[in-house]
What does this fold into?
Amino acid sequence: MNTIALRISDFLKQFPPFSMLTQEQLLAISGAVNIIHIETEAYVFKTTEPIKNAFYVVKEGAIGLYREETNSLVDKCDEGDIFGLRALIRQGNYKLTAKALEESIVYSVSSELLEAYITTNIEANKFLMQSFASNTLLGQDESLPKPIFAKTTLTDFNDAETANYSKNPIYCNPKTSIKEAAKIMTNNRVGSIIITESKKPIGIITDKDLRVKIATGQVSIDAPVTDIMSSPVITYAKNISVAEAQIAMLQHKITHLCITTDGTTNGDLTGILSEHDILVIRENNASVLVKEIKRSQTPLELKHIRMRCEDLLKRYLNQNLPINYVAKIISAINNNIIKHAIDLAVKETSSNPPTSFAWMSMGSQGRQEQLLLTDQDNFLVFENVSESEYNNTQKYFLNLAKKITTNLNTVGFEYCPANMMGSNPKWCLSLSQWQSQFKKWIAQPDQDNLLLSTIFFDFDFVYGNKALADNLSENIFEAIESHDIFLNYLGLNALKNPPPLSFFRNFLVESSGEHKDQFDIKARAMMPLVDAARLLMLSSKTASINNTVARYKKLMELEPQNKDIYEACLLGFEDLLRFRTLQGLKHNDSGRFIDLQQLSKADRLELKSSFKAIKSVQELIQTRFKLSQLM
Amino acid sequence: MGWFKKHTYPDFWNTYADCFKRNQEQNLDNTRFVVFDTETTGLNPKTDRILSIGTIAINNYAITVSDQLEIYLEQDIFNTETVKIHGLLKTGTSEKVTEETAITQFLNHINNAVLVAHHVAFDIAMINACLKRMALPKLKNNIIDTGFLYRKTLTSVNQNSHYSLDELCEKFNIPLHDRHTASGDAYITAILFLKLVSFLKQQKSGLQLSDITLPKNRIGLL
It folds into this structure.
């Protein structure tokens, strides 16, 4: 009887090739493994060392595989991943160094066990051979001990927009002199010329070649173009996506791609795609969309623009642009759409507003973190009016708000199920009414008022009289100053969702309801970071910054001693936001609930490091607001 | 002259005792540790009995799963209260051996290894009580207590607090599989031990066995 071996086999049998073994084979291996504990940064093996007589399976933690010469991280192995196997089977050297990225527990399985139980199992052996073979097929270094079970995340280019290329490429034949070629380029106002031989591209000359090789006097201007052309050219078929084109240019360190009929150098030249073309595609769209928003006449037109905005979002994410940049652009477009929807509603209303007002977005839109269409959350504040006029004024704005929310609903921002919208008489108030409302929430921080505070205090001015919005945020800071116990309660609220650190052992998934067994990335990972940033900003009494990333940036400035923690939070939040958005685009939903089974390893590691940030910022909050006494 | 007559001990004891004739290896790298845990009918070494013993060895800082022991003992004394904790019934399904066989197997397994347990004094006292019933001397091995080792990692604060295995597992992020089975607890303690040693090695280069073993005068304390 060996309980420990049983537990090990329970673990191993989840992963191939162990899952393919018989119970006896598995138990025999499990009863003979060694268990190693590795401190962060400690080595399992180095390339310089002789091969150990074992391969390894990660039980807990994460092991990084590094290329020694460049010290670059080639792969990460986490729970269930195998490494060090290829060297063992090939009897070669270690091609990579294995170092713990975090404290890890690793099973070492001896080569005797491998030979006795794994390679003798037909299915398991086939699996091993296939893994090696498919790695080779992918064009990787054949001898690279890549963790064979890692699912590599290949960005899906199919959805990405096809790049627009120039369909009238300028070209010349190989006998053309450099001088001639330069004239052709100048006449056509292009920065490059393709050299073709019976329509097939054989080389390219760019402005840079003329500068480097001609202007320096290195080659005569009367020499044939073939003397200075770069050859061969990199070719693609016409359906190349923007992302692919960018990657190709980066990979080959070039600025021009040739488009040929079959995508190879044997095909006929049909076009040229330059780095400049890509810049145009990338920059133009956001501004084009904004222009079109301004021209739209109906909410339905806005809806179509919003849908195109989603394509833009997909493209940005596929191109791996910084998420904060993406969020800013998409939020700007969203804001423009909302503004215009309000404009349309104001025009629809027969009479002019009796006094000035401001329309505010709150929640994720207020924080400019809304990348996917979600429910609308908003409120309306109007200038103080005399008591006798109050009812009529409110009635006017309620009517306006109803039109606005209807327009927004048409655009695709669905009605808030909790009715947190300016069309609700509770959330359509005069400035002084809002001020006393906010004060009351701060003075009496019960569960409901705290919840309202977390939603409403992240507001962003969208439309109307901005002075009203500024007035409201000043008011919040003043009220907090006189009731600073509010921050302690807000702190308790911020700690409500502890980080899901045991993510990989006991999956913290929803235990019931529609999303049973799924991971709620919003409530469990993003909100804790949002809540922490809001609390720390409010307590720092710094003028209203609502965006979570911007908040952490500001906090890094304000508290250099906690820079590391805030930076981790910032990066963690960006990762989570990107992750959620990609999930949402993939499944065409809010991206909030994630099926953990479908996560790739890289995703899991990324999520895991965000969770660590949650833990450290929550610890900071607990100490700073002395919450252990309150808990 | 009978006073000077040498005790005649059974062969298994002599084999065990012979292991200690060599000097104890001080280099941690080459030391064999046996992490163990006993499940008992209660907390009194005099009246209570061992229900099961679980061990796992550490060689060269690697937990060697093949080098382990898991023994269940036949029972005369039985305390229904503790069944709730360890779930071992008097007549369970596991194969059971007599106390004498268990101790023979245990000594044969540990040899001169350094014994490691959490709150080791109790487990040692339980084994020594068995040895006494068999008219044998006490255990001879060097001993490490993971609770004591943890206190060594702390600064002066709370030096004397008592830390349960559960608390330490939480602090060191060790999942509690098979808690309250002798083997499960031995395994958990082994992981804890490796983590503590690696921590202490970072603090003090050239860490030696004598730095981490329990002073002999503390072993009697419960």
About this structure: The mean pLDDT of chain B is 84. The beta strands of chain B are 32-40, 50-59, 62-73, 96-97, 114-117, 143-145. Chain B has one domain: 29-213. The helical segments of chain B are 11-18, 80-86, 99-110, 120-133, 146-153, 165-171, 182-203, 209-212.
